[in-house]
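Exercise 7. Given the components listed, write out the predicted structure of the assembled complex. Treat all entries as one system.
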Amino acid sequence: MAGTVTVPSASVPSTPLLKDELDIVIPTIRNLDFLEMWRPFFQPYHLIIVQDGDPAKTIKVPEGFDYELYNRNDINRILGPKASCISFKDSACRCFGYMVSKKKYVFTIDDDCFVAKDPSGKDINALEQHIKNLLSPSTPFFFNTLYDPYREGADFVRGYPFSLREGAKTAVSHGLWLNIPDYDAPTQMVKPRERNTRYVDAVMTVPKGTLFPMCGMNLAFDRDLIGPAMYFGLMGDGQPIGRYDDMWAGWCMKVICDHLSLGVKTGLPYIWHSKASNPFVNLKKEYKGIFWQEDIIPFFQNATIPKECDTVQKCYLSLAEQVREKLGKIDPYFIKLADAMVTWIEAWDELNPSTAAVENGKAK
Amino acid sequence: MAGTVTVPSASVPSTPLLKDELDIVIPTIRNLDFLEMWRPFFQPYHLIIVQDGDPAKTIKVPEGFDYELYNRNDINRILGPKASCISFKDSACRCFGYMVSKKKYVFTIDDDCFVAKDPSGKDINALEQHIKNLLSPSTPFFFNTLYDPYREGADFVRGYPFSLREGAKTAVSHGLWLNIPDYDAPTQMVKPRERNTRYVDAVMTVPKGTLFPMCGMNLAFDRDLIGPAMYFGLMGDGQPIGRYDDMWAGWCMKVICDHLSLGVKTGLPYIWHSKASNPFVNLKKEYKGIFWQEDIIPFFQNATIPKECDTVQKCYLSLAEQVREKLGKIDPYFIKLADAMVTWIEAWDELNPSTAAVENGKAK
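Answer.
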C-alpha cells in the first residue's frame, strides 16, 4: 500500500533508521545510568542532554554515547535575556534541546524510563516504533476502526472515503507506558498500587478537533513540521505550577496540527516507567493546574487560528495572543506565559534562521 | 471508581447479564446452524430473526432457542404501506427487528460470525463484552490515552479534566472482527488473502465530532437512548445501492449522539468472521456508494441539528430534511431515502407508542 513503511523486523536494525536525522533529547538532574539499558537502540544516535538544577554538578554519561550537554549556564549564555522562557527546576527545560537540535526529528525520553517487553517477551525498540509512526501517514479526518491502516496486515475498512486514504503527514508520535501509568496526584493517591499491565497493540491517530493529554515521557516529533509549537511553557522554579509542561505543549501543538492538517498518533511504543513520583510533591505542583485546566481545555477546544497563519510560528504567535487575552483573565500567570511563548518563538527563529525564513508546516 | 461495572469474569456468567432486557436481532436467508456455536452465550436471551428473501422458505432454528421470526409477509402485514421503508434482499432488513423489539438493549450479529478466541485461547463472550461497554460510560469529550478509563486496571491519565470524568451515557457498542476484515470490494480485490489476526485489547470512545464506519456485523445499542436513529436505509432490491446500510445508520447515529451528548464505543469484542463475501457482487452493490460517500461524509461532518431537537426522533427528522435538501441534489435516490427516513420514524412511533410520547436521549 502507498504509505506503508518497510522496516527491518529485528529489534536492532542493522542500519539504524534516520541515524543522522534524529536527536534524542533527555532532561535530567542525575547520572544517566539508565542509558545502559537503551544502549543497543540509542548508541547510534546523537544525544542532547539538558541538565536541570545546579549547573556545578557533573552528570555522568555512560561511555560510548555521542552527546552534547547543556546546563543552566549554557542556556543563559546561548539565549541571553531570552533564556527567561526556558523553565528551571522542571523537566520543561527539555524544550531547550528541541531548539538547539539541528535534526529533522526529535525523540525525548525521561531518565526513569526503561526498555519494556512486548507480550512475546521481546525488548521493545521504542525509538524504531516512533520512527515508523512518524514516517507513515496519519488519518486525522476520519476514524479507522481497525486502527493504523498503514500497518502490515491492516487497511482502511469499508466505508472509509477513498479521497482520504492518502492521509496526512505525521507530526507527532506519542508513546505509552507500562508499569507506572501517568496519573495525576489525586489518582496516584487514590490508587497507589495501580500498575499498567495491558499491552494494547495499536497505533492510532487522534482525530482532528479532538484534544488529548500529551505526556512528555516518551514522545517523538518532526521538528521541521511542528518544532516551534513544542514549547513546554513556564513551570517549576518561580512559577505557580508544575507538571503541566507537556500538557500545555500538547494542547497548543494539537490545535496547530489541526489547523495545518498535520497528524498526531498515540499508542505504541511502550516504555517501562520505573517509579512513581511522590504524589504529595506532585499535588503541590499540580493543584493550580487542576483548577485551571477546566478553563484551559474549553479555551483550546474553541480556539481558532486565522487562515493566513501558514507557518507553525505564525500559528503559535496567534495562540499566544489568544492566551493573553482569554486566559490572562484567569490569572496573571497566563500573561507571563503568553510573553514567554512569544520569546520562545523569537529564540527559536534566532537559533534556527533557515527554518525561520522558509515556510513551515502545510506550505512545505 | 464511579461508573465501573463489576461483571463476573467467567465467560458464561451464572446469571446472564440483562437477560430480560436485551434482544438479539439476526437477519438471515438460511438455516441458523451458526447458533450452535453461540449456544452457551445466546441461549438465555430472546432472538428476533428477520428472514430476508423468499418468505415461503423455512428457516431452521436449532432447538432450545427462544425466538420470534418475521418474514417479508409479516413485515408487510405489520407495517402496511409503511413497510416500504424496510429493505428487501439486503441485510438492512434487520432494522425491522430493532423496531419490533420491546427491550431496552439490542445486539445484532450476522449469521457468518462465529465465536472468536482471545490471545489466551479462551472463547470470547461477545455479548457480555457489549453489555459491559453499554453499561459503563463513554468519554466523547476528551481523549484518554490509556483507552477505556472505566476498565479495571485503567483510569484517566494526568491532564484529563476532572469535570469530564463522569463521562457520558453509552448508546452504541461497535465490535470488531478477526479473520475476514470488513473491507470494501476494491480492497478485497487488491488483498484477497488479507486476514485480521491482530487482537487489540482495547475499547475506546469515538470522540465527539468524529465520524467512523459503523459495521452492522457485531453491534449493540441502547434502544431507549438511540433506537430510532438505527435505521439501515433503503438498500438491495429495487435500490441503486447495497452494503451501505450500516454505514448510513452509523453516520446518522453519530451525528445525533454528538448532538445529544451520548457516547459511542468501538473495539472489543471480536467475533470470528468466517467467510469473505464475493468481491465482484460487492463491487456491483457498492460502486455508487463509493462515489457518493465522498459527498455524504462531508455532508454529515457539517450537519448540525437545531438545539430544540431534544429527542432522537426530532433529531432524525431534522437530518431527513437535510438529506432531502442537500444530498437530493446528488441523486434522486436521496429524496426517496429521505422519505423513507420519515416513514421509518412514523412506523417506529406506531410500534413504540410509549417511547414516542416520552422524551428520548438527553432529556431522559
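Discussion: Residues 22-351 of chain B form a domain with the Spore Coat Polysaccharide Biosynthesis Protein SpsA; Chain A fold (CATH 3.90.550). Chain B touches chain A through 57 residues (CB under 8 Å).
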